[in-house]
Specification:
Length: 66
């Protein structure tokens, strides 16, 4: 992930994209969508399932953003 986007800056339906990514087990994409939607708890939980390094990075990004 390079930066956090605002939900109104994307040109796709976030809920639909999240559902598709979840169904296809694209966890990193789900993490990105969660952060875009402002669902930081869900993003961190999933990131920690993917890898502790990714989760630690995301925690730091979210703390700075909030």
């Amino acid at each position: 992930m390079h930066s956090l986007q605002e939900a109104d800056q994307v040109s796709y339906d976030l809920k639909y994209a999240l559902r598709l990514c979840s169904e296809c087990d694209h966890k990193r994409a789900c993490i990105h969508i969660y952060t875009t939607m402002g669902l930081y708890d869900e993003a961190v939980d999933l990131a920690l399932q993917v890898s502790t390094t990714h989760g630690d990075y995301l925690v730091n990004v979210v703390v700075v953003a909030v």
